[in-house]
Amino acid sequence: MKFLLLLAVGLDLAWAQQDQSQVPVQQGFSPDQVTGPWKTLSLASTNRSVIEEGGAYRCFMTGIVHLDNGNLNVTYFHRKDGKCVKEFFVAEKTDIPGRYTFEYQGQNYLTFVAVTKDYVIMDFENQWEGNTLIVVELHGRTLFSGKLGLPAYLKHTARRGIGAGNIEDVSLNSCNSS
Ligand SMILES: *[C@@H]1O[C@H](CO)[C@@H](O)[C@H](O)[C@H]1NC(C)=O
Ligand SMILES: *[C@@H]1O[C@H](CO)[C@@H](O)[C@H](O)[C@H]1NC(C)=O
């Protein structure tokens, strides 16, 4: 009992670094709602260079698999040395459904802000060497269905202090051939 309590406190501390009022999680989140293929429509960040060509977060998510241990295997295409390569990261579940953590150029906190059958809005908060970087992404089951998420996406980017100049429509771009 004491151990469980301590474990819960530890996870809460990790999340305490993030202002959760700014990062609502989809109520009633279930991992099976986000599994399957996705198409990336838009990327936004507090630092524009990370979502521009060659940036660490210029990633085109192609699918999510729900692993047996409850974690998520997220696959995406990303340009590396001029070539498009397929990569993946494993998002580790926390005690809050819809919130995950993983290592990628520092510690990342991933929140599924909105999940519908048509689109997902994913919020990444990266902490590295004392700096905080925020990346918000809009993905659709198809290009068309993803557009239904635009109003909610723009509301969330505004809430995160990301202006229109730091939001890039990548729906016509892709990175899946070399
Ligand atoms: C933005 O990101 C680039 C690339 O990672 C980095 O060199 C630069 O220092 C960052 N700018 C700010 C203001 O953090
Ligand atoms: C995640 O998916 C990728 C590609 O689909 C695969 O190569 C990799 O082994 C998977 N990793 C885990 C931990 O399941």
TrEMBL record:
Chief place where the protein resides: secreted
Source species, domain of life: Eukaryota
Location(s), subcellular: Secreted
GO (cellular component) term, any one: extracellular space
Domain Lipocalin/cytosolic fatty-acid binding: 35-142
Signal peptide: 1-16
Sorted UniProt keywords: Secreted, Signal
Record bears the keyword Cell inner membrane: no
Keyword Metal-binding: no
Annotated GO MF terms: odorant binding; small molecule binding
Gene3D superfamilies per the UniProt record, alphabetical: 2.40.128.20
Family stated for the protein in its record: Belongs to the calycin superfamily. Lipocalin family.
Protein name per its UniProtKB record: Lipocalin/cytosolic fatty-acid binding domain-containing protein
Organism ancestry: Eukaryota, Metazoa, Chordata, Craniata, Vertebrata
